[in-house]
Fold AAA family ATPase.
Amino acid sequence: MRVIRPSPSARHDFVPGTAPSGPATRVPGPRQRIGACRRAAGIPVRPARCRPYTFDRYGDAVLVASVLSLKGGVGKTTVTLGLVSAAIHRGMSTVLVDLDPQTNSTLTVDVPPGGTAAGGPGVAGVLDDPRRGVVADALRPSPWSDLLRVLPGSEDTERHNHPDPGAKKLARLQTALEKLDPAPELVLIDCPPSLGQLTRSSLWAADRAVLVTEPSLYAVTGVQRALEAVQQERTSRGHLQPLGVVVNRVRPRVSEHEFRLAELRDLFGPLILSPTLPDRTAIQQAEGAGTPIHKWPSAGAKEVAGMFDQLLDRLLRSGRTGAARSGSGRGGSGRGGSGRGSR
């Protein structure tokens, strides 16, 4: 029997349990076996390094990430804002979309809520009418950086949270994002902790889903429900992929947290992202002051900022966008923008 190594074109043809075809027997290598198992389990397989991958649904290489949790109080907004801080610190043009009617993201980045004279129509107005002029009127700059624009949330957004929306309503957010001018490099969507129209609209529009949880008794159930929601949207929106699960507010020396974290890793394996985020006072202090975590002057903030940099790297690598920016320390020139070497 002649044994040869698989060619690149045949790498993704192997399925466990099937007989090889052709005159020669192709033996899959470790990467191909792992990839086949990941696909069988529904876990996304990373694109080959030599294959350029960009998101062009919005006309440019725009990466849209939805940050969600179906359990409240786990720090979903903290993770969203940490990724925003990491992106503008790196010099990336970013749009923050606040779909949570609590408007915590909007208030933290120092933008007036939508539906007010200062806040414009906000995201609720955009979901009412996603025309280009309405989107342009709704976008607001943030004191965090000239690189950051915000579609502000409001309590009025709740009226768009229908439990069983049709495809036309679900598509409105994506329609609005297609009309962002100029197109950003990154869009981060802060979702409400429920599975209604708002969260599903976010998944409809997103390329990547970032799930957030904490090491608690109900963490496993919350993650499972969120993954099921992502999988359900993937059946009709093939571009959506789960990036993974960010475990937030971890206390390493608390036995309950160690047990729950081990349980999450045992059940969800590579979907549990590294690093996990520790419970640090600096995070609450920076949010209370309305300041990016990369600008907060403490050792704890510097530690957490580095972790958000790693999570942003993982997000960008998943889409092969921003590779040229890897390791860059450029920041925005706005009132709150960070400069070179400010980490």
